Amino acid sequence: MKIAIIGSRGIPPTYGGFETFTYELALKLEEKGHQLTIVNDKSNCSEFFYNNITVINSVYNKGHKPLHYYYNSLQLVKDNHDIILVCGVGGSLFYKILKVKTPVITNVDGLEHLRGKYSFWKKSLIYFLQILSAKHSNWVVADSFAVKNYWTHRFQFVKNKISAIAYGANEPEKSDNSILLKLNLEENKYFLVIARLVPENNIEMILAGFSKYKGSKKLVVVGNVKDSKFSQALYEKGGDNIIYTDGIYYKPHLDALRNHAFAYIHGHSVGGTNPALLEAMICKCCCICHDNIFNREVTNNEQFYFSQGNDLFDRINYLEEIGNKDQYKKMAFKQVVNNYSWNKIADEYEKLFLQLIRK
Question: What is the pLDDT of residue 116?
């Protein structure tokens, strides 16, 4: 098959979940013998990648002009592929305008219209694009059963053309412990957060809970420090036992931080299967997650949960008291290996692609 994947910022991944998804799915499908085309953001310049993976660049940056980016990306792939997989709902505005005849699958991500960082008008636009995605996509993919349930209840006409296919995670091949020396960290002596510093990731709640902690462990926050007024305000709330690293994209460094953390704190509250949580679990992290249906689905209700700062403080103290977290680490690892491997995810997408082509 000739498969195009558009809507992420492209590969190699240097931003977030959609980019990691595009990268891993493309690699697995290429291994199966399919031909892949990835459209990259203008600022993410990349050349020929693998034998059957072609990377082309849009003339737009997704962050600056997202709708232009989707329009241009569709123009580049609409006529010479068997399947187009679109990451996000932004392309749905143009499926009919561009008269796209190739089967289009929209991966709708999480519940984007609920993100706190967006204005009322932007949330309204996203909701409108969700309606168009439900109407005009040949098929819709939700990344968790909770997101699928939302879509089938909200948009009646999507019931017979929607699947739940999660993201995946790979067991780390190597980790680079030099990052611990650089940050002056000791094994098992810090809690870890890896997230963009935006309202829906509840960093403020995490800081409030951790501020009550009187132990010796530190809190390491890997995220986009000081790139907005909101993240700057969070940074200024930090204390002596809080370390902000800004973004880290070198995976062996991230895996080293995960491998040696006392526990991983996951504050994401909007979205389905979050890649950052999966990657912590595959590294055998004991996880303390924001209490919502998405995180409970991914962790199979087997980890720890908080809905306010006091809850997080209680979970931190409990883990300090019990000391041995081995059973939670093993359950996290097993859950990902059994249900969220990239091989399994790629098999499900390949099966869906073939079904749509046959139709």
Answer: 59
**Is the separation of the CB atoms in 330 and 286 below 8 Å?**
no
Integer Cα distance of 61 and 76 in angstroms: 15
Retrieve residue 10's tokens.
């492209």
Write the single-letter amino acid at 205. M
- Could you tell me which of 275, 255, 281, 287 has the C-alpha nearest to residue 191? 287
Q: How many whole angstroms separate alpha carbon 355 and alpha carbon 157? A: 19
Q: How much is the pLDDT for 121?
A: 79
Strands (E), 232-280: 242-244, 263-266
Q: In angstroms, rounded to a whole number, what is the distance separating the alpha carbons of residues 243 and 235? A: 9
- DSSP annotation of 50 reads B
CA quadruple 178, 182, 187, 193: dihedral, nearest 10: -110
What would the DSSP string read from start to end of 322-346? H---HHHHHHHHHHHHHH--HHHHH
Cβ-Cβ contacts under 8 Å for 166 (sequence gap 6 or more): 143, 144, 272, 273, 298, 339, 340, 345
pLDDT 10s digits, 58-75: 999 998 999 999 999 999
Show Cβ contacts of residue 73 under 8 Å, excluding neighbours closer than 6 positions: 6, 7, 39, 58, 91
Count CA atoms closer than 13 A to 63's CA, side-chain side.
8
| Dihedral angle computed from the Cα positions of residues 307, 310, 315 and 321, in that order, rounded to the nearest 10 degrees | -170
- C-beta separation of 134 from 310 below 8 A: no
DSSP strand pairing (83-87 vs 304-306): unpaired
Which has more confidence, 125 or 238?
A: 125
Lowest mean pLDDT among 230-239, 257-266, 277-286: 230-239
At residue 252, the 3 state secondary structure works out as helix
Q: How far apart are alpha carbons 156 and 305 in whole angstroms?
A: 32
Nearest to 164 by CA among 142, 149, 147: 142
Look at residues 333, 205, 340 and name the one whose alpha carbon lies nearest to residue 272. 340
How is residue 23 annotated by DSSP? Answer: H
DSSP tally for the chain: helices H, then strands E: 13, 13
